[in-house]
Structures are given as structure tokens and as C-alpha cells.
Amino acid sequence: MKITLINGEAGAIPASHRALAYGDGLFETIYVDHNGPQFLTDHLNRLLSGVEILNLAWSESCTDKLLNEISRLVRDITVPHALKIMLLRNYPGRGYDFDPQQQTTDVVLQLADYVKPAWAEKGAKVVVAETYINENQTLAGLKHLNRLDSVIARQFARKNNAHEALLSDAQKNIIEGSMCNVFFKVGSEWLTPSLKVAGVAGILRQQVIEQNAVQVREIHRDELANVEAAALTNSLIGMVPVVSIDNRILSEKVDLNYNWNL
């Protein structure tokens, strides 16, 4: 099953839309099952943070309407689905500029069946991408529509027979994977990269940080040689153990039965 609603109705995005031309918008991807949308409040808070930074047209009544539409869309869900929310700036003029008083925001909801990939249960083979992530402190943490870094990294992973590719900044500090946040175990400590200059502040990443002893700091590529265990997280696949980094088999595998307080 796949359902797409644009402003509450079936429809299509016109070819002239700013979201297609400039990636001018935000999105969230949410795991949904018989218990409803997982971490919905956290996803909504990140979305609203992006609304403020991008200066999208939005109000409290828009939030209420969005929540009502989500509730209606997922009320009969009994098996895993992926819910995607997109907020797209709509403005009639050409070019990058826009008049804040004349803009509107299109709300796109997509609901589709979700099946976790087989490798998520067995563990992920990870490589370090050759390309660097675009750095922008203003956009760091947001899940905006400009995802070309991830597109290129996914192809690098595919070419190297890996499940995920890690992206670095210009100083060769690891930031994130193409679709996941990452945690490393070095000695007795668990670490996760700082996202001050780039990256997506993942919802599950934040849950792990808040409820477990995890140090957030810069992690240089050279430190990967000392990593004994690692894990990937995102909202759909959950937490996945890493079995290798650049073909080096890790000495430990993350125990998913360990109480991660999630």
C-alpha cells in the first residue's frame, strides 16, 4: 500500500515547484506500526525547528491540522509502515528569493509498507566514503531536502558491496552515514560524532545519547582503527550492529539485547 496526500488531497507536485528546483523544504521519515507513529513528538519538534530556520509559512493551527491528518492516515495501521512528512515552500516567483508574506507551505504525506532489510538483522558492512559532506552550521542537524551528499555516498557503498558509507567533513572527522547516525566503541567508551558543522540530528541518535553514557565529540578517520564495536541508527531500521569498517572485521558485535533504554 502506498498513499500520497498533498495538502490533504490526492495530487501531484508541479514541475515548477521550488522543492524540485532548489530542495527548498524539510522532511521527516517516521516508523509506524500498531502502536502508532514512533517518536512523533520528537520528529515534530525537529520539523518545527527547521520551519523556523528556513522561515517557512507555518502556524500553530498548521501543526494541529498536520497531527489530525497523520492520525487519520495511520489509524488502521497494524503492520510496519514508513510515514514521510514533507513541508515544501510554495512561492509563485522565479529565482531563489521569495516574499515571506506571499509564500505558502505545501504539506505532503506519504505512507508506504515497510520491510526492514535483511542485513539490518545480520549486521552492516560499512565503508568510509571518498567524498566529503557539505558543511553548513545553519542547516546542521536539520533533515532538509538537499541530500546529494547521501546520494553520492549510497553509490559508493553499492560499488564497494557495503550496506552503509560514512561521510566526513573537510578535516576528515566522521559526521554520519548516508542514511544513519553512527556510534563507536573505543575501549570502554561509546562515542558519536559531533554534528556542529553538518549532519542530521537523528531522533534515535538523541534517544541513545540522552539515556546512555555516550560522549559526543569530533572523531577523526584515523581513530576508526581503534574502534572495537559500532552501531548504526535511524528511525526505520532502529539500531543495527556494524560487523566491519573498510573490510576490517570489528572485534566486538553490538548486543542488541543489551538494555539501551530505548
Automatic annotation (TrEMBL):
Keywords: Folate biosynthesis, Lyase, Pyridoxal phosphate
Organism superkingdom: Bacteria
GO term, biological process aspect, one: 4-aminobenzoate biosynthetic process
KW Lyase (keyword) present: yes
The protein's annotated pathway: Cofactor biosynthesis; tetrahydrofolate biosynthesis; 4-aminobenzoate from chorismate: step 2/2
The keyword Lyase appears for this protein: yes
SUPFAM superfamilies: D-aminoacid aminotransferase-like PLP-dependent enzymes
Family to which this protein belongs: Belongs to the class-IV pyridoxal-phosphate-dependent aminotransferase family.
Name under which the protein is recorded: Aminodeoxychorismate lyase
